Amino acid sequence: MQAIKLFVLPLLATAIVMTGCASRKPVNVAEAGQNPSTSTTVNTEGLSEDAALNAQNLAGASSKGVTAANKAFLAKRVVHFDYDSSELSNDDIQTLQAHAQFLMANANSRVALTGHTDERGTREYNMALGERRAKAVESFLVTTGVNANQLEAVSYGKEMPINAGHDENAWKENRRVEINYEAVPPLLK
């Protein structure tokens, strides 16, 4: 019986911690500072929850803070990392500065920063690395002047690869933080 407790308790604790790292709550329009009565409404009947959220976000898109100079950088929604690193590269700084500028100009915008890793390493290690990556992006944005309440850092570790390959090219694509607008995304048209 003692051996079972020694095996089950750490396993259960790890499962609870890992589940908490990847859990996210949907953005409530009222909590996001938008007045539901004046928000643009979109018919989302028959759409999945994600598709409905995306449709509603596009209806509430903003061009405030979007300039000709930063439009290309705002279109980029992924920041990549080197192997076993959570350091931001110089290549991604302009992208993050453009998103910071937009977020500061649009207080109702909300962003989920989702950290990802490649398949190498344990699940626990990759969850922690994904979180460090998301927190590095969050820290940069806050240091630049973005309100921390507009940001949510989440780790998915190695659980959601965008390239299922098992080579350096696939791993390079999977080591990333995605910038996902959940409320008032940039209008890039």
CATH class: Alpha Beta
Q: If you consult CATH, what is the topology?
A: 60s Ribosomal Protein L30, Chain: A
Counted by DSSP, the helix tally is 6
Widest sheet: strand order? 1-4-2-3
| Separation of the first and last Cα atoms | 64 Å
Give the proportion of residues in helices.
40-55%
- Shape descriptor reads globular
Overall mean pLDDT score? 80
CATH superfamily: OmpA-like domain
Q: How would you characterize the overall build of this protein?
A:
The chain has six helices and four strands, in the order αααβαβαβαβ. It is an alpha+beta fold. The protein has one domain: OmpA-like domain (60s Ribosomal Protein L30, Chain: A), CATH 3.30.1330. A four-stranded mixed β-sheet has the order 1-4-2-3, with helices on both faces. Strand 2, helix 5 and strand 3 form a beta-alpha-beta unit. Helix 4 crosses helix 5. 29% of the residues are buried. Its main location: membrane. It comes from Acinetobacter cumulans. One of its GO terms (cellular component) is cell outer membrane. It holds the Pfam family OmpA.
